[in-house]
Write a structure and sequence with these properties.
- The protein is mostly beta strands.
- It has one domain: Jelly Rolls.
- Helix content is 6%, strand content 41%.
- The chain has two helices and 13 strands, in the order E-E-E-E-H-E-E-E-E-E-E-E-E-E-H.
- The strands form three sheets. A six-stranded antiparallel β-sheet has the order 1-2-10-7-12-5, with no helix packed on it.
- A hairpin with a 2-residue loop joins strand 3 and strand 4.
């Protein structure tokens, strides 16, 4: 697996070694030993799978009391994936990094605890998988608005995104609960 650094040193992108021929392809999507070599020794406790239509924007989500690290990948279609540093004491607090994840490029991203995460579906639909280091706790979940001017995320939008009611009600970073 090849490591690709992002604009935020704690957010990592991985490009797996893909073995393909006329029959199809094979690659390891997770190997605990390999992840440990890159400093990711977290134990994953939950796998999630979502399918979204083109133009759906999910996020920016995080859990404040029971933070989750996430290993994410897109297995069908393509997404524009974003991570925002919400660790107040971090030198990159309030900054974001973004990259494309797709079934074609087979990239995976590590979003550690202390970051908000979101994605925009660029293809007709996308299926997105993510492993988490803690269980989903709806009472702990928080949302920051995707269009927060303080973050100034350069989403590749064509028109208005499709948002859930929860995402429409997200807070601005300046009002949000963040990590110490």
């Amino acid at each position: 697996m090849r490591l690709v650094h992002t604009d935020l040193p704690d957010v990592l992108v991985f490009e797996p070694r893909v073995f393909g021929d006329a029959r199809g392809f094979f690659f390891e999507s997770y190997n605990r030993r390999v992840m440990a070599e890159y400093g990711i020794e977290d134990v994953f406790v939950q796998d999630n799978h979502s399918r979204s239509a083109q133009g759906v924007l999910r996020g920016l989500h995080y859990q404040i009391g029971l933070p989750q690290g996430k290993l994410v990948r897109c297995v069908a279609g393509e997404v524009f994936d974003v991570a925002v540093d919400l660790r107040r004491r971090s030198p990159t607090f309030g900054q974001y990094t973004a990259f494309r994840l797709s079934a074609e490029n087979k990239r995976m991203a590590w979003i550690p605890e202390g970051f908000a995460h979101g994605f925009l579906v660029l293809s007709p639909y996308a299926e997105f998988l993510y492993k988490t280091t803690d269980f989903y706790a709806p009472e702990q979940e928080r949302t920051i608005r995707f269009d927060d001017p303080q973050l100034a995320i350069a989403w590749p939008l064509e028109g208005e995104p499709i948002l859930s009611a929860k995402d429409q009600a997200g807070k601005w970073l300046r009002e949000a609960e963040v990590f110490a």
